[in-house]
Amino acid sequence: MSRRGIVRLVQFAMIMLLVGLVALGSAPATSYAAPTINIADARALPPDSTVTLKGTVTVPSGAFESGTFDKGFAIQDKTGGIYVSLPDDLGLNIGDQVEVTGQLADSFGLLILTTSAADVKDKGHGRPVHPQTVATNGLSEATEGLLLTLSGTITQPVVADPPYGYRVFVDDGSGEAQVFVYASTGIDVSVFLPGQHVCVTGFGAQFDTHYELNPRVPGDIQIC
């Protein structure tokens, strides 16, 4: 099993433990009304803080399930973005508006919000978030949680990391970026070869000690 797989299994156990504690009443409940704050302000708070956030869905429900072992989604407002982890598939799509109450947690470098289905409120549908352009060497803590787009040349053969997904390495001349394609997105990576120029849109993420870009749906990574 790869390092990603081992870490993801540990992550899954931790999330399920937290969900279980909430259900048993051994952890703070998140169903009460809490003041809504900006995502950027929430990101500055310590882990275990309970927050209520509003945002637009940038990653649909369950898109990253093959690696995160949950059916979460991501949201973004004018100040920042964050991944929301929960075990239930709420069927949220890109552009949906939601209000979420949950607890902040560190998922091996990636700040996430853990919650339950009862603490996610549907606020209708709005305009999809437009991705920010970033250089391949520009993935960092500052881009974590944001919808991003980059372009460059594939530098090596696609690396399979089953059953979680695939690693694609892209460089625009500024430095190599890792694009991790979760198998659950349904993206066909067999067409991508070294030397091709690709354009990639996805969620700015961190895994362990490195930053990466996670495409969400077929069409997020294309030869261009």
Written account of the structure:
With 224 residues, the chain is mainly beta. It has 2 domains: 3-125, OB fold (Dihydrolipoamide Acetyltransferase, E2P) (Beta Barrel); 132-223, Nucleic acid-binding proteins (OB fold (Dihydrolipoamide Acetyltransferase, E2P)). It has 3 helices and 14 strands. The strands form 2 sheets. It has a 5-stranded mixed β-barrel with strand order 1-2-3-5-4. The protein has a 5-stranded mixed beta barrel with strand order 8-10-11-13-12. The longest helix is centred in the N-terminal third of the chain and has 22 residues, at 3-24. The termini are far apart. Residues 21-31 have low confidence and may be disordered.
Summarize this structure briefly.
This protein has 224 residues and is mainly beta.
Assign the CATH architecture of the largest domain: Beta Barrel
Q: Judging from the principal axes of the Cα atoms, what is the shape?
A: globular
SS field, number of helical segments:
3
Number of domains: 2
Give the ordered list of helices and strands. Answer: HHEHEEEEEEEEEEEEE
Q: How are the strands of the largest sheet arranged?
A: 1-2-3-5-4
- Helical content band: 10-25%
Query: Structural class, please?
Result: mainly beta
Number of E-state strands? 14
Low-confidence stretches: 21-31
Quick one: biggest sheet? 5 strands, mixed, barrel
Question: What is the CA-atom radius of gyration, in angstroms?
Answer: 17 Å
Mean pLDDT: 90
Which percent range describes the beta-strand content? 35-45%
CATH fold category name of the largest domain: OB fold (Dihydrolipoamide Acetyltransferase, E2P)
* CATH homolog superfamily of the largest domain: Bacterial OB-fold
Under CATH at level 1, the class of the largest domain stands as Mainly Beta
